[in-house]
Amino acid sequence: MKQIDLIIIGGGSAGMSAALAAKKQGCESMLVLERSDALGGILQQCIHNGFGLQLFHEELSGPAFAQRLIDALHQAQIPYRTKASVLSITPDRIVTYVHPEDGLCRIRSKAIILASGCYERTRGMISIGGKRIKGVYTAGSAQRYLNMENILVGRRVFILGSGDIGLIMARRMRLEGAEVLGVAELMPYSNGLTRNIVQCLEDFDIPLYLSHTVIDIQGDTRVEGITIAQVDENKQPIPGSEKHFAADTLLLSVGLIPEETLLQEAGVVLDPKTKGAKVNAHMETSIPHVYACGNALHVHDLVDDVCMEARVAGASAIKDMEKKTEEACTEVIAEGEISYVVPQHITTHEKEDVIFSFRVKRPLHHALITFENKTGVFQQIRKKVLLPSQMQRILCKKEALDGHGAIWVKVREE
Amino acid sequence: MMLDVCIIGAGICGSFLAYDLSHYKGSFAVVEKEHDVAGGVTMANSAIIHAGYDPKDHTLKAQLNVEGAKAYEAIAQRVHAHYQKIGAYVIASEESQIAQLKELQQRGNKRGVRCELVSGEELKQAEPHVCEAALMALYVPDTAIIEPWEMALRLMECAVLNGVDLYLEEEVIGIMHKRDYYEVKTSKQTLCAKRIINAAGLGAERIGKLCDGASPFHMEIKRGQYYVLSHHARDFVHHILYPLPSDKGKGVLCVPTIHGNILLGPDAQILSEEDTSTTSQGLARVREQLTQLVKEVPYGEVIRSYSGCRPCGNDNDFYIEESAIHPGIYHLGCIDSPGLASAPAISRYVLEAMHISSWERKEEWIENESVIRCDEMEDDARKALIQADPTYGHIICRCEAISEGEILAALRRPIPPRSIKEVKKRVRCGMGKCQGGFCEVEVAKLLARESRLPLHEICYDGAGSELGEEAKG
Hints:
The structure holds 2 protein chains of 2 kinds.
Chain A: E1 2-9, H1 13-24, E2 30-33, E3 49-51, E4 60-61, H2 62-75, E5 80-81, E6 85-89, E7 94-99, E8 103-114, E9 118-120, H3 123-126, E10 136-138, H4 139-149, E11 151-152, E12 156-160, H5 164-175, E13 179-185, H6 194-201, E14 208-210, E15 212-218, E16 225-230, E17 243-245, E18 249-252, E19 256-258, H7 261-266, E20 290-292, H8 303-319, E21 329-336, E22 338-342, E23 345-347, E24 354-360, E25 364-373, E26 376-386, E27 392-396, H9 398-401, E28 407-413
Parallel strand pairs in A: 1-2, 1-8, 2-5, 8-20, 10-18, 12-13, 12-18, 13-14, 21-28
Antiparallel strand pairs in A: 3-4, 6-7, 7-8, 9-19, 15-16, 16-17, 21-23, 22-24, 24-27, 25-26, 25-28
Chain B: E1 2-8, H1 12-21, E2 28-31, E3 48-49, H2 60-79, E4 83-85, E5 88-92, H3 98-110, E6 116-119, H4 120-126, E7 136-140, E8 144-146, H5 148-161, E9 165-167, E10 172-177, E11 182-186, E12 190-198, H6 204-212, E13 219-229, E14 240-243, E15 253-256, E16 262-265, E17 269-271, H7 280-290, E18 302-313, E19 319-322, E20 329-333, H8 339-353, H9 379-388, E21 395-397, E22 402-403, H10 404-411, H11 420-427, H12 440-451, E23 469-470
Parallel strand pairs in B: 1-2, 1-12, 2-9, 5-14, 12-20
Antiparallel strand pairs in B: 3-8, 4-8, 5-7, 6-7, 10-11, 11-12, 13-16, 13-17, 13-18, 15-16, 19-20, 21-22
Helix pairs in contact in B: 1-5, 1-8, 2-8, 10-12
């Protein structure tokens, strides 16, 4: 069987960033496997701007951001395959993939990084009533149709969910001449970035119905209308609050889920909250030398954050390659108004600073974020507003983490 | 041209009839109002080949279910359709139900259906997720699963290969009695036939009325709703789990599918007209009734819900009769559960009524080609396949790992898919957890390329479901 040092699954922003970081650490034998016919991942269909403010200090479109990474990958002469789909990985790190020219291949790799992105929650997962007819799309697939294939999937659009892709698509469909009848959000607050609420809805007078959901879809062969209703505090529709819209298209922007299938089938321990793998500060999963990063690990808001996280995974995969024994671990515990923290554990003797990523469960005002270990609070940050739609990334110094046991990350309102 | 037999309906019964008739000399046609074979009742049900212990004695259902179930394995192999004998447990969870369980066992044994009683402990060992209350179960090893639309398609493609005409998207709108034949007027043409088989599923009563003035049978429409669980939940149950059947039907079941999903359902609701919507109330009924069967249901793995309508009536038995007014017209009414399991026997029953044994058989009969399923192949065979045709190495549907080659092969079979949903029915693209979010556009592009249509004209399902319009840019 062919042997290699590193296989990276996914040639999007995370996979390419991990590959570049691994190369920087001197990795000479690696392969990036990308299933679609081009590198760049989902960025290729995100033709709006706003990418790269942190990483490149300028506002780029998705494809332009991707191209910078692709150019760097070419410059570093990192080998990759497009149209290569990984079918399985095993705990002893044998990767099986298929490719039109390579055929069915098995490669044993010293390390694997999973950077396969995420997928959208669908109508099926949220069980909206009605028939299974044409006209219900996830926002991302409508985006793909429009931006990559030049097809407008509808003329009178309603959007369920105020996630960023939904908001972006509200503006995009409007600019293409479609009527956007409204956006309904189950929660009493929006789930998108504030700048997207302003630039994509308010600037176009598109109404946002908070605490509303779609309860019915009408039509026989294609969508002819939808009904929304207000929901109570238990998210149950309130009778009498129904509103009807003569929409021909319903777009869903109701959440993203890490693409975890390969890891789950290999037996990696998953975090039920992120739905991605549980990792340590090096982005290493419960299987040694198997890493996860980017949206395949947990869903990010900004591609810049994806790239920075992926660099940690890429560099660690090479630095830790000769590591034989597993290091002792200590838990990172999320408490209070936090929904999850990544990493979920750190090594007992952490040798580097660690960035903790987390989200809050609900919008908070005058929030206090504290990091504690058994000796007490070692770091605290105050924030005027904390929103679930904004992932927080906070760096803790290695001195505070080394040898002090479990870490508690807590958030509360003051 | 005079048809010897005109079959109305291309569901599972129409497909078995067409398949069986294609072995005989004569001229046969199938008329179907939907865009595809297996577009109605056959598309949305529990996909089970019930073994036959359940129907009451002295019913057609009892006779045809047992016969049909026994015929399936061989025929599935012959036409290259999936069939898996996974076995079933019928579960009693109250002392008062045990007598009924024993009655089912006796009924089964009398009919030659293998079944044995097992204790609650044994059951829980085999199926750790059955509810705590489970006391005893009837184990039925020969209960099987199929993919109903695949079975119908394979049968119908054999029929088409052997000279049966298939007219899709043609609704029968009139039937006229001529001197010694019938005129079948469809939305597109008029066919002349010596005999008609009304296998129209939910439309059978309407066709009955067209034939005889008043339909000789009455049907009610019963809708059942289901959840589908992803592959991640494949270990939730390994057998079909039934509660004890009641007058209302077989109850809410857990059913593993051929491709590693699990179906939960159906509820049962009588409707005044056909409606395959799902409702929150219906799905709530499924969840509620499941608590009496299983525990720790992984609802987080739900990837889809759907509903199917079944034609029921005739005091809970099939109505299979030759018209009393018009000889040569055969009605298949009220074909609800176990219609799928009985279908091979229903076909034979009808053909025997036509004295098929005196008809002349064809000397030659063309078999359909087997279907290449990459994920079911050994490594070496798959390597050789990709080397010979690289499209088999290009995965289009990531959730189900379906290659471009498999889709192209489906497009070139005798009954080619013409829409996204029809590709999905044939090769499973879009049946995974992303529900086509990633692959739908790729499938549409292949359909556009192969049919030389612009992409935006590709349909999701039938006419009127075109993808959209070209953006002005």
